[in-house]
Amino acid sequence: VVPARPSLGRRTRSLTLLLGAVLALGAVPAAAADEPVAPATTYDDYQPGREWRDTDGDLIQAHGGQVVAATDDAGEPIWYWYGEDRTHGTTNTPGVHVYSSTDLYSWTDEGLALQTMTSRDQFTADPYFAELYGDYTDAERDVVWRDLSTTTPADVAKPILERPKVIHNEANDTWVMWVHTDGPSSPDSTSSYGRAWSGVAVADSPTGPFRWIDSYRLNGVPSDSVPWCGTSAAYDPAGGMARDMNLFVDTDGTAYIIYSSEENRTMYISKLDADYTYLSAAPEDAVQGEDFVRILPCSQREAPAMFHANGQYYLITSGATGWSPNPARYATADSVLGTWTDRGNPATGDGAATTFGSQSTSVIPLDPENNRFIYMGDRWTPGASGSTDLGRSPYIWLPLTFGEGGSLQLNNATTWRHEDLAPQSSWQVDVDLDWSWVGDDLPATVDVTSDGVTESQPVTWEFTEGTVGTVPVTGTLADGRTFTREVLRVPHDLVYVADSGAATVGTGDAARIREIAAAAGTPVRNDVPDQPLTAGATWGWTSAGAGVKSDVGDDLYETVRYAANNRDITYTFRDLEPGEYEVHAGFWDPWAHTRTTELLVNGEVRGTLDITDARSSVSYPATVAEGGELTFTSRRTTGESTMISFVMVSRVGAEPEPEPQPQPGREVDVVVSARAQCWGDGRAVVAVHTANRDGHPVDVRATTPFGEKKWTGVADGTAVYQGFESGVSSIAAGTVSVAAYAYYDGAGHHQVRSVPYSAVNC
Ligand code: DGJ
Predict the structure, then answer these.
(1) Which residues pair with 547 in a beta bridge?
(2) Which residue lies with its CA nearest to atom 11 of ligand 1?
(3) pTM flag (> 0.85)
(4) Is the CB of 302 within 6 Å of ligand 1?
(5) pLDDT in tens, 371-423
(6) From CA 508, how far away is CA 520, in angstroms rounded?
């Protein structure tokens, strides 16, 4: 059981009076005049991973830390770097170390900003603690000892002090430090991470001494409000867990604490009070959305680092894999307590999967007016249990740059200086590219808005992965800037779209493709996403014992059918009109195995492919002979059994059906009505009904503002009906045009009727 938050917390005493004496205790003795002074250890560049020493030549101990911009006593800019002192390894930390610098390359040791304790006697016997906590009551000292003592009985897990962060409170000119303070949640606990608390300390000077106030569980949500990511351990009645954490002060002076909660499943951001030393409201009174937000649910993110750039808020996080590096991700929001959108890994290329061998800790605002920011990460080297190797964990500082729409890029570098990080402007491309026809050119120019000025610029396009289905497309502007869009690529004149592996519903992409094909007047023949080739079926797959991954999302590639025992997977399409076709197939391996496959059309090998976790697609011409059958086969050659994401069949070069030529004077007798209606949950639809009374079969074409539909050979005495979805909930009054054609007595006959419909608001 985690002890409840002690009621004595939230101290707000002035520190000023006692600090003079304590600062003197922490001062570094000056070298005597006749002693030789060793040259200072300095640097003039960053070499991520290099041993980094302070000006005295000692290894810098500021892990899991943060760099804060400040002003020195002479009013000059100065930087302070705070972090974990890991001299003794994972536990027994001496406290939070602070260094100062005027150039961010070379750092002067400013000592321990917050000191931990080794003995309770220090409250009286050690002048530092006696001064700092001299006016604390016994109960208050209990809290300090509980949170800052590094000693525990031999059989009790050691306490932990991690990820210290400091912010300056301009309103009362104090420096406030929050840390992840942890340790056994009960005397017999064996976990150093059982408490999951955040602790707070305050100082009048950026270098300390910071005086401990208290530590707390933070905001959480009620037990019945979320499914806890399927992990009962994520909910703790003792309150909102808080482990890896960071702080952020917004432009309006409001401060926030960002923390990994719910057993590291979900991130929270909580507002702090005006002093920055407690939450804006106690957890029992806090209002979600006003005092805190629960973000990136169930994403298991740690090591949050927030900053503000390009008019939006950024949050870089790591995955939760202990001391091992993993892929970073970043999210953005329009306001701190707003909606955060995950935008993927900011690192790309070699090393992206381990964030270049690092875990985020903070972002340094090098020159925020020009969007120049530095990523601070740790490359943890914990060594064997009990080793002090963690204290030699290198620091990884890398330049951050921004792409189109404020997309974030973390760049790897072996040696770099601030001059290598150019000012970053914000820019955005405006192009309507939700979907496009395969074979049609993409736009030759796009509108680019850079720093508020919009101009049309030529663009070249490259498909980053496959070419059919939703694929990433990279646009390159004349000046070399690149941007990407996810574009749904749809073959013209589709006949079938088989969403291989889809269970019942099919992916969002497959549904969109069906809609696009129907709106173009060439609706696909299949109305289920995937099916086996049973007797009498016009299409389907064959592959005995095949399995599926059928988690249906939007991406056509992400449902797959995989073969068993190295068998082929074949799709057969029947009842096709003889002629020329194209077969398109897509591949993507969710398990990233090695699979090489031969691809056959009508039994003939057309190519080979390595199926990987990158989306790839093929398109092959195919001739359908009398009998109307087309087959597509994926046949394993090496590696794991083959798999398919989708197969599409499209018609090539089919003669457009000649439109019957109207013959003036001979009308076709059809009765047309049109009505605007509401369907389902508020979709406005124009419904068109055409009855044939001509005494002959007729062809009908209905044209509305929301699409067109053709019927051929509508028998006499029957009617055709179609609802045209507007895609919105409210439409104005309008007109439908229905053309009817008939051919008899050696001549064509024609009739066009315009029918009004009224406005509807669903
Ligand atoms: C990952 C965290 O980000 C670190 O601060 C530390 O707590 C390690 N886990 C411990 O395994």
Answers:
(1) 562
(2) 322
(3) no
(4) yes
(5) 999 999 999 999 998 899 999 999 999 999 999 999 999 999 999 999 999 99
(6) 19
